[in-house]
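Annex B. Sample input.
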Amino acid sequence: MRDLVIKKLRVLIVSLIHTSFTFPRGLCDIVIWFIGGRESTLIIRLFSKKFGHFLMNTESFLIDLEARIEGRKVIYFLDKLPYDNNQIKEVWAEIITVEPYGRMIAWLWLSKWSSKIEVISYPVTWSQSGLLLDKEFGDTNFYRAVKQKPNYWEDLNLDSNRPLITITVRHSSYQAAALSGSLQSWRDNDLSVVNNVVDSLDADGFQVVLANYISDPSVKKELSKKLLIQDFSLVQQARLFESSVLVLCGATGVDWIPVMQGRPAVLYNWQLGTSFPSVIIRSKSIVVPQRVFNISSDRFLTLKEYSQLLQHIEIKYSIDRLEETVQLATGVRTVHPNAKEILDAVGRLRKWILDDSEIEPKAISDSWKGYPRVWNHMNRPWVAFDKSKLRSYLQYQ
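Annex B, continued. Sample output.
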């Protein structure tokens, strides 16, 4: 706890120092803007507090703005909280100039008084996110930016004799140095389950590679020796995903790269609800969701019950996910899927990639029926739930 507090204080102090240096530059910008005739200006606040939002919100904004920026000065800036992952900022810097928050304070104040300045901020709407489906990955802004990085084209020195499966592992330790409130450790992957999955795939002849960076050395030590860990850069991670036969996505921010790339994926331990973003999944994928266990009735919730619970907490607590406080209040706890469920989904996805008839369209549409109608944008014919729990999910019918 003491180390965490020290880290957060350090980040806060650095942020304040940085703001004190950049704020005067913003005042100079305003003076120049007035002298230059008060050009119509569009200011975009990039939600940079968390990696996934910094990646996907920025991509969605850039697509949505393509038809809106003609003849206007456009300024992008970071959320006032410390941004997560300098590497993604460097990627975006290849195609847009991203200003620090301190430089924008004066602009934001002036926007309240001038009709010449429009400010657009988080959140991104579902319709904006859906625009991603209209673009091939090669046409996305992220790909246009990342391919300009020289190390995107470097050899990753992997075993070319074994098919590659890339895995992401979500662990809350990466947020410990940021002022991000709850670390949401309830979303973390069960490392013992991950290890069992990795060992089994390795025995089946696959090379399994960890894509995302794990900052905590103690966590790395807990991972299987069969898992290749090389601390790949963000740019190298994009190449890894693109080279994989399929990706195991552990519900962490970097998952949006293979999602945008249209890589076949097993989405394991994903949390359902309005924050489950199937609206932008492009390729055949199987969801192995995080389970929800009702303590009083001593059983797992069906998909319909899970959805009803999410609707209830959205109304009562104005939240779309099962934070630990909400779990306590509603008498449930989340449970990570086991290795067999994940491996079954991997086997099923491999067959589905080769044969469209492996999963019948009706089975897919039926598995979505538990979602409320207000979430009907979630229904995607290329995203199925794992077979092992499909029957229990359909008990509501």
